What does this fold into?
Amino acid sequence: MSKATYLRAEIVRTFRNRRFLLFSLGFPLVLFLAVGGANKDRSLSGIGFALYYMSGMVAWGSMVAIVSSGARISTERQTGWTRQLRITPLRTRTYFTAKIVCGYLLALLTIVVLYVAGLFLDVHLRVSEWATMTGLVLVGLVPFAVLGVLLGHLVKPDSLGPAVGGITSLFALLGGAWGPLGSSRVLTDAAKCLPSFWLVQSAKVVLHGPAWPPAEEWVVLAVWTLALGRLAVLVYQRDTARV
Amino acid sequence: MLSGLRKSYGPIEAVRGVDLAIAPGETVALLGPNGAGKSTTIDLMLGLARPDAGSVSLFGLAPADAVASGLVGGMLQTGSLVEHLSVRELVAVVASLYPDPLPVDEVLDTTGAAAYADQQTTKLSGGQTQRVRFALALVANPDLLVLDEPTAALDVEARRDFWATMRGVASGGKTIVFATHYLEEADAYADRVVLLVRGQVVADGPATEIKARVGGRTIRATLPSIDLAEVCTLPGVVTADRRGDAIVLSCSNSDAALRALLEDFPAARDIEVRGAGLEEAFLEFVTDGRGVPAP
It folds into this structure.
């Protein structure tokens, strides 16, 4: 009962934050419409450019949405709100779950907005392909949900922008969300160790055969999730013991 | 119930062995200057910080368990409200976290926040924010209400309003612990005053008792051209000072001193007898560190 009310309030707060929504949804959409629209008759890596670019933007946009949702914990820590919550019966787990659920809702909204834009740019996929792509992207976001919570405890609000922007850009670039990495073997192999590589590939699932994704993806996602999760727990403990 | 509580931050010993037992229904003021360890003591009470030594027990439970059971409501010294909710929504969300909350509208009325219940939390003045924060503590309907300098940011009028509200709450039988460095607040609103200086309890008792411990009353009278040494020898007088035409006598027994004064110096007029305010009591402890053993 209490959990539902709390969760609903968190969701209401997320979606009342117009500026946050505008930037979070707006950037990938504008980029997609501009770049994807201008090149929509070309093709890249064997698929239409619009589809290629849409999947890149889906990966990047949803990643930014979920990381910045978690990172907003930083502001609540600075204003003392988390301390206020710690003297209520609200459980820590519920607090973090609500943050992650909000991040996922925002990511899902970003994805849907990009899909709709994709339809306008003549991206055509079967229903099963849309569904598989969405499902795999949502799973691929798990390590980034944890990354957001971690950044929310590591970074002060005044450096949140550059930190979230910089880190997600780096992940997006190296993961290939903004275009192919080139032909360097070393770089391509290294990229396969990044969760963003698999996130981008998940968004491009129509390119792959039925045997995709390989076990390698699950290993990379699991390792990143566990490692970031462990760090987040350590940072949380340090934070709550000190203050 | 706090016992042998200690907490250091780096080289700073914020709390150096605090022992306190608080009975249900008491209103207790933690009084002390800035840096006395009031906020640290409250953090330890609420489980926001872990003691280096000693223990805290609230209703027989560890602080975290008492908080989780909804027995405790708190208002911390600093903290703003979260954005993108109206006052009513925010109070309702916090109420929903507790097993036995008060009705939201009732709390909004009690705290005077009803007038701006539908405003966004970010659009409030300092005094309004403080009332909402108080509402968040109150809506929990806790057995123990802990307030850390609840009026620190308020002007005189808002402070008076706040305490008028508190008085109503205290008469409801709740245990209340509040920290303050306003001496008159501790004096006026607490049954019991715990004086904290440099991380230690230097006095603990009813406000009147603390005043008595620091030397009773002063007599002030207009009495020009007499020798101070003469009045100094009156019974019950500890020290005598001259302020222009007036003399000020600090007394251990003001009744005896006053009788003798009137008898020996019939010229004395404009006589005032005042109890030493908590202010004086406080300054005495703070300036000479009396009662504080060397670290």
Observations:
- Chain B touches chain A through 33 residues (CB under 8 Å).
- The CA atoms of residues 2 and 20 of chain B lie 5 Å apart.
- Chain B has two domains: 2-211, 215-275.
